Amino acid sequence: MSDADDEEQARLIEAGRLLFARPCGFLKGVVKVDGLPMGDRPEFAFAGRSNVGKSSLINALTGRKDLARTSNTPGRTQEINFFTLPENDPDGVYLVDLPGYGYARESKSKVRAWNSLITNYLAGRASLRRVFVLIDSRHGVKANDEEIFKLMDTAAVSYQVVLTKADKPKKGELEKVIESTEAVMRKHVAAHPRVLVTASRTGEGLEHVRAEIAGLREH
């Protein structure tokens, strides 16, 4: 990057730090489209396979251990959860925790209802600035991740991959997953080409996710 690019990235990292240093609060959980809050501020959604670490990432980004519920049981998040950042600030943003996909223990009717809710949300939310699609860095892109990519390509929803649990694989293995993921994303029209790499446990890469949100909030 050029010096100007470096300066801009540093500015956005600081803007993200300041934004996420303020309190974040839970607004509501939504199980039907008519329960969605007004689209009166920029929204940033987090999607991913069940147990990929969405709730852990949201907690790490906001510095709250219990803001989003975490569980070792796949499929725990069964509704769209909205959080306000900063809390009670109409000029802030919504962080949105989407139900995990790719988990089939629940009844087919419930899975269909969740899928319909997510599809309608992604396709019809004008205030949605970006979806961060979380991919476990130990496993890379799976078939049902590709299904979500295609859905967002069709809906013209901007999305960006965030690799999670980057402290788990060995360095060489992680680099291979990053390269293969970047190659996949170049094939998708609505995907942001830059892949973010994070580890909620260690804090690795969190500043870059915050910076992306701060930059998109400005536009």
Automatic annotation (TrEMBL):
SUPFAM superfamilies reported in the protein's UniProt record: P-loop containing nucleoside triphosphate hydrolases
GO MF annotation, one: GTP binding
Any single GO BP term: division septum assembly
CC annotations in GO: cytosol
Cofactor field: Mg(2+)
Keywords: Cell cycle, Cell division, GTP-binding, Magnesium, Metal-binding, Nucleotide-binding, Septation
Pfam families: MMR_HSR1 (PF01926)
Residue span, EngB-type G domain: 40-219
HAMAP family in UniProt: GTPase_EngB
Role according to the record: Necessary for normal cell division and for the maintenance of normal septation.
Family listed: Belongs to the TRAFAC class TrmE-Era-EngA-EngB-Septin-like GTPase superfamily. EngB GTPase family.
The protein, known as: Probable GTP-binding protein EngB
Gene source species: Pyruvatibacter mobilis
Biological classification of the source: Bacteria, Pseudomonadati, Pseudomonadota, Alphaproteobacteria, Hyphomicrobiales
